Structure formats: structure tokens, C-alpha cells
Amino acid sequence: MPLQTVANRIADLMQAEGITHLFSLPDVLHGRIQHALVQRGIPLIANHHECAGGHMAEAYSLLTGQTTAVGAARGPGVYNYYPAVANAWSEGRPVLFIGPEKSREVRSIAGRKSFQYVNAAEVLRSITKYSNVVEHPELVDAVFHEAFRQMYIGDMGPAYIGIPFDLLRRNEEYEFGPILTPEQYRPATFLGPGTKEQLDLAKAAIMSARRPVLLAGSGVYQSGMQDQFREFAEELAAPVLLTHGGQGLLPDTHPLVFEYNIGEGLEFSRNADLVIAIGTSIGDKIDNGGATPIAARPALEHAWGNAGQQRWIHIERDPENLGRNKIVEFPIFGDARQTLQELYGVRPNSTEWNAEYISVRKSKMSAAYAKLWEEAPDVVPMHPGRVMAEIQKSIPADSILSCGGGSFGLWAMRYRHHSIAGHMKSQKAGSTSAGMAYALAAGLKLRGTGKFSINIGGDGSFQFYLAEIETAVRYKLPTIFVVGYDQGWGDEVAANLAQYGDTHEVDHEYVRLDKVAEAMGAHGEYVATLADIAPAMQRALASNKPAVIQVVIDRDLNAFGLPDRSVLSGGRDWDHVIGGLGAPGLDPFSAH
User: How far does CA 118 lie from the centroid of its chain?
Assistant: First the structure.
């Protein structure tokens, strides 16, 4: 067998796994891995902050269904991506985090407070599927193969591999065996469609159902089966509910899509006699399918039908998740893509929810949004909901939309009703700062296609990684950031006042973010009136640059005025906003 350095061998192993990019700052300690990857056509994507690179990698994995990789410098560089590891763990993304470790000789010396050294493998063990250090050259293959294997067994998730830099910097070459394929070193991760018995029971349940509903989550994205999911949903012709992480699998405007726990979507979830769940753990954001009533959120207690009257099919790749959050009548342990192939074409023999019935309810839902937009006033500073209504008119339907954190991000989600198919948001971990990095990942995926990545969020979360605007410019990422500007932490204002009647450090100095963007080489727009939104969007789309559109919104409305879900169910309840932290009597549809 030919001889190789450790760095070259690691590059070959990463290439065999299908990794196409390394998200990492340039670093001399693992620079030889970076160089070896570039020689193999795997480019380095160098962010300004390791955590932004980590978030970008997990979002790229979600968009492509691929394993992704993140690197960092020894010590502080690795510490910086810890939050991204936690987010990838919570979201279930197969991301490999690598980090140089101190040399084996130094790590073996008894002592404390060693320069740029904390036992990262031990620290990260609780938020990774696998965490280890390559102690000897002959163990490189075994450690990397085990990391990739564990990342895909059951619930997917990240892994950490530490590599002593003495292994990387020396020129010694070693004899390694042949490069294996993923099918060889992690065969158990390539699942079939479930057993014949499971499939037969599921088919019988679908055929006998009179009111079926399809529930889908982010696992459909991670499996790269959006097109197949659309075909299955349209063939089944049943109402579709999407979890928070599944938003955008089908457009909001698709005739079968309804919103969970709102209006007609609530009617369907409560009255369905069969729920087909795919790509979701049936977690707490959808009330565990009704299995765990939460007293503090009474609206969710009745989002699903009664046990015994409503049956569930749950398609899941991790057998430990079956029955964990909700006991289901028809569990299927298997690959979602292959399972849908087996179930494709199976339809209810007779249904109460025919095409006409579903169409009438979709019309009611669309009318509720139209009224919501129409009643939002044209005021200065701008109404956050009206801003979102206007922005939607200029977003190309083939864009990928991501949401940042803060109040404006919540307004964007409440007022969004668009033909875009492709949304991303950190859901389970709720990482406020991930939105910008998610948008950059979408821009990387869409680069050269003529399509756009659109990010909508507040100014507080946007400024976490403001330097990454230069990253977008350097890599020519077609990304537009729409920043709702209320000059502070709008999401904290209502919470602080509700908790102790005062606010502390929620307001920022006035910053022209559009000018900051221009200084970094991006396109900048400053918008103060509704009439200027569409022209600003058009200029940004035509600029052939990453762009920042700073839209000035009303601070009090942004903090207090987000309407309750009931506005889309035919009623108004302005005293109840997200979290119950609103200012009584503040009507978000009137100027003040």
C-alpha cells in the first residue's frame, strides 16, 4: 500500500464520507488537513468566528443531507464553536467538529493550567454522538469511521475528533489500508423501509381512515427527500401540517398546507382519525402529539384528538424514539424515503375531507392572512407586520428563507404566508444567533444558480456576527439580510416590564447597518417608509452583491403588539401576545 501522512489520510477519509467543504478559520496547526482537502477539490470556507462556521455547517447539512465538517484552532478556537456543537446536537445534524490537540507528550505530563488546552473531548462528550482523540497514526481510520458511524446511528448528531498537532505537523508517512465507502464502515445506518408487517398495518390504517392528516418535520429536509415528500402528500391528498422545523417543505400557499394549532389547521389536527408523522420526534413544540398536556400553555392541550379515537403512524429512523414522546398504534422503524416509496399510492377508501372540503378551508385561511395584512397600518416608524407583508411581495418564490431571532423574527413568522418552499430556523436549541449563519449556508448552496437566500430578523441578533457580512462578500454568496431595526433588544422589553416593571440595557446606540455593510463591500439599503420597501428589495436583488436592508420599525409595536394566533382563527385577542407579555390595550392595527 502507498504511504501517506496523517493529514493526507484524514483528507481521504473525509472525502470518502462525502464531505464537500470544511468550515474553518485558516489555522497552522491543522493547516495540512486544509491543504490536503483543497488539493482534493474540497474548499475551505473561512468565517470570522468559529461559532458562525459551526452554525453554517449544520445548516449546510440540513440543506444538502450531507455530512459536514468544522475546524478550529487549538484551545480558544475550539471553545468558540461549543455553542454550535450544542445546536447541532439539539437539531440532530451530522456535523464533524475537529480540533488540534496539544502534542501527546505534553498532554501526558501531570499538571494544570496548560497553555491553550482544555480537555475538549471530555467537555464535548455530553453534546456529541461521539468524542475522541486520535492517539496514534494507526488509529486514524478507526476513530474517523466510528465517528461517522455514530453520527448516523439512530438520531443523527455531531461528533468531535481531537488530533494532536504533532501527528499533523510531522512529515512521517504511514501505511494505511484501502479507503472504505460509507456502506462498508457504517452499513447499519443505511436502513430499509420497515418490516412487511409494519407496512401492511400502516397501509390498512390509511385505507380505512376517513380523516387522515400528514405531519412532517425537519427530518424530511435532513433526508434530502423534499420532492418525494411533495409527491407523497399530493397523492395522499390529505391536509398537511408542518412542525416548526418542517416549515417550507411545502409552500405556505400550497392547497394542502395548514398551520399547526391555528384556525383550520387546528380543526384538522383535533378531528383527524389518523395522523401520519414523518421526520419528527413528535416533541414538545407540538405538545408530544397531545400526550403531555402543559398547564402553562392551555391552547396546546386540545391541539390533537383523544387517545383511542385518533391513531398515529410514526415513521422513525431511531427505534428509541418510537413510543418515547407519544405511544403510537403503528410504529415503523425504517428509512423515511424508502418507507414513503412503499406507502405511495395508498389512499383512504372513503374520506370526509375531500378536495372541495379542503379547498374551502384553505380559502378561509388565505382570507385570514389577507385581512391580517390589510389591517396593519401604514405608519412611521413602520408596523413590523406590515413590513413583512410588503417584503413578501418582492421575495422570489425559489428563494430560501431563514429567520433570525428576536421580536421581529416572531413577527416575520406570524405574518409570513408565501409561495416560498424552503425555510430554516434554529428550532430545538433556539439559538438566536444562528439565523445569519443559516442564511450564509443557503447562499453557499444557491451560489451560481441565480436564486437568493433571504434572511429576516431583528437588529440585536443580526449584530452577533456582523463581521460575517464580509464572509458573504468574499464568497459572493447571494444573500439578502432584511433587518428589522428597533435599536435594541425588542424581545426583552416586554419581558422585563412584565417581570419587574423596568428595563435594563435593552436600548442600543443608533447604527446605520446599511453603511456598515457598504464598508464591507456589500450593498446597503435604509428604509423608513413602506413605499420604499419594494424598490429597496429590487435594488438589492439586482446588485449582484450580498445586501443588508435596514428597515426602521416601531419599537413599542415590535415589543408589545404581536397578535395572538387567534387573529388567524377569526377572532382578535390583542391582550394576549406571544408569551402573555403584551401591553393591555395596545392594538397592533392602529397608529399610536
Answer: 30
Q: How far apart are the first and last CA of the chain?
A: 77
Indicate whether 77 pLDDT > 50.
yes
Task: Give the start-to-end residue ranges of the domains of the chain.
Answer: 3-189, 196-359, 376-580
Give the whole-angstrom CA distance, residue 270 versus residue 301. 10
Q: How many CB atoms lie within 10 A of CB 350?
A: 10
Fold of 376-580: Rossmann fold (3.40.50)
Predicted local confidence at residue 245, as pLDDT: 85
- pLDDT tens digits for 440-456? 999 999 999 999 999 99
Distances (CA, A) of 313 to 98, 245, 431: 38, 19, 31
Longest dimension (CA), the chain: 77
Q: How much is the average pLDDT of 543-570?
A: 88
State residue 166's pLDDT score.
86
Query: For residues 94 and 68, is the Cβ–Cβ distance under 8 A?
Result: yes
Q: Which residues contact 559 (CB under 8 A, 6 or more apart)?
A: 407, 486, 490, 491, 493, 494
Task: Read off the pTM.
Answer: 0.91
> Tens digits of per-residue pLDDT, 164-191?
988 888 889 999 999 999 999 999 889 9
User: What span, in angstroms and rounded, lies between the C-alpha atoms of 22 and 38?
Assistant: 9
**212-268 tens-digit pLDDT:** 999 999 889 888 899 999 999 999 999 999 998 888 899 999 999 999 888 899 999
Per CATH, the homologous superfamily of domain 3-189 is Thiamin diphosphate (ThDP)-binding fold, Pyr/PP domains (3.40.50.970)
CATH of domain 196-359: 3.40.50.1220
DSSP state of 579: G
Q: Report the alpha-carbon distance of residue 60 to residue 48 in Å, rounded.
A: 17
Assess contact for 337 and 221: CB atoms under 8 A.
Answer: no
Please, are residues 25 and 192 in contact by the beta-carbon 8 Å criterion? no
Q: Determine the 3-state secondary structure of 479 from DSSP.
A: strand
Residues constituting the chain: 592
Q: Residue 431 pLDDT more than 70?
A: no
- The x, y and z cell numbers of residue 484, run together, are 428589522
pLDDT, residue 523, reads 99
Q: Phi and psi (nearest 5°) for 520?
A: -90, 0
| Pairwise CA distance, residues 304 & 315, whole Å | 18
Q: What SS3 state is found at 341?
A: helix
**DSSP class of 96:** E
CA distances from 553 to 55, 285, 487, 574 (A): 28, 29, 9, 19
